[in-house]
# Entry
Amino acid sequence: MDFAKRYIVDQDGFDLSARPTRDKNVIDKRGAERRRAQDVSALAELQGRLYAENERSLLIVLQALDAAGKDSTTKHVMTGVNPQGVRVTSFKEPTREELGHPFLWRVERAAPRRGEIGIFNRSHYEDVLVVRVHPEYLAARDIDPALGAQEEFWQERFDQIRAWERRLGEEGTEVLKFFLHVGRAEQRKRFLARAEDPTKHWKFSAGDVAEREHYDDYQRAYQDMLVNTSTKAAPWYVVPADQKWLTRTAVASIIRARLEAMDPRWPVLSEQQQLAMDAAVAKLRAEG
# Structure
């Protein structure tokens, strides 16, 4: 199963409402878990090569409505990689300092360094999603909220995002973007499960439940964002999120495929470095 081909956003005629939140016919749970285990193992080796090569990086963006499984996806997909080469950044409500800068400022500072895999748990896309649903938030940046009603305002932000991601690519950072597509009924089920489990009360937020009133508004905002910012170099993948085992398998498979296409290589020693290593090894053996 080519998950990338199945879930990629095609700008020509893309319709989010036609994309499933549950995909029953793609793979069964047992097969998905076997495949994920293979992919996670391969990711560990690929990430090690990327880190050692120290020339390029990979940025993974995770966007979703609340309770779609961003945290657990990160945990299960990246479980086998060396944490030294992976950096996860969670973007919450902007701080006062962040609000004093252009909206891309805080993500620019968190972009992965050479050799790293960077993961954005939420991202710069909050500023064309949450802020679009709640244009009153623009006032915190000294921007007239009335601009939120103008299509040109959001198109300008889409332009800025595409330009930034294009620059990342030119500088050696490849970009993968996932929208974990959870259904309204499944989201309700997960919220209730949190409320019924004392160990998950810390994850429950009345504010998240209140945002459910804007579910349709978010679907429209996501539709527009996905169409306007999915590019060949930095594509979006809409991954069904009602079945967590499927979500994790699809994300792991797509990341593995991108890293394999990048084909990072173990560094090759220069002649001088090889001679120095041979001399050091000979010295160590002589100690015995």
Summary: The chain has a mean pLDDT of 95. The longest strand covers residues 173-181. Residues 29 and 217 are 32 Å apart (CA to CA). The chain has twelve helices and five strands.
